[in-house]
Amino acid sequence: MKVPRLNPLVLGQTSYPSNLIQGPLAGISCAPFRVLTARYSQPAFSCTEMISCKTLLHQSLSAQKRLVMKDSEEGPLCFQLAGSDPSELALATKIVSDLGADLINLNCGCPVKKIRRKGGGSSLLLEPLKLYQMIHAMKQSTKLPVSIKIRVEHKNELFHEDLLKVLKDSGLDFLVVLADIGLSIMTSLAVTTV
Ligand SMILES: Cc1cc2nc3c(=O)[nH]c(=O)nc-3n(C[C@H](O)[C@H](O)[C@H](O)COP(=O)(O)O)c2cc1C
Fold it and tell me: I need a surface site. Which of 7, 49, 77, 95 has the fewest CB within 10 A?
């Protein structure tokens, strides 16, 4: 397996020694997994799996321990939220900020029908105004960097220049673009500042 060369990564005001990110993996990227990956590969930051805003708002935090727990041995942690309602996202952003998040990401890349049907995941790119309102609401609720994750495929023409302008105006700090560079354990995400 070809191992990519690691370089420093600068995102806004923060600089990280490595440009490797432990991506969000539903059912896998819980705290014990992240402690192991932090110990052996020292990513710039790790991500939680996608956490639904509705779950976060309507279930007790103790019932969601596997999703929201952050271990003291972990490095910087990005909480990934899933949702489509600006006011729910604002509240969820406040909750994860108080739980010790270092960064916050909104999932705009999930292609799964069940998520898209509820207006979440990659279907968010179809509604630029709503996306603007969501990111703006998140930025109003936290001082932490806010990003979105998108998936760019050949057949996917959802991501275009106009959308990029909307994202820039929304206050988004950076954009995470899914790119396949052939890694299996550390998921591969190319990161760019907006
Ligand atoms: C089991 C599994 C769960 C995933 N869960 C999420 C998720 O919760 N949120 C997300 O944005 N991406 C999720 N992804 C996508 C990965 O984060 C990653 O972008 C994708 O696997 C591509 O990386 P790779 O080429 O290294 O496999 C998941 C992928 C897998 C295989």
Answer: 7
Q: Residue 110 in contact with residue 150, Cβ under 8 Å? A: no
Model pTM greater than 0.70?
yes
Regarding the beta carbon of 42 and ligand 1, being less than 6 Å apart is answered no
Q: Is 80 in the pocket of ligand 1 (CB under 6 A)?
A: yes
DSSP H stretches of helix in 59-171: 65-68, 86-98, 113-117, 128-141, 161-170
The answer to the question of residue 10 being in a domain is no
The verdict on residue 95 lying in a domain is: yes
pLDDT, tens only, 3-46? 667 889 888 778 899 988 999 999 999 999 999 999 988 899 99
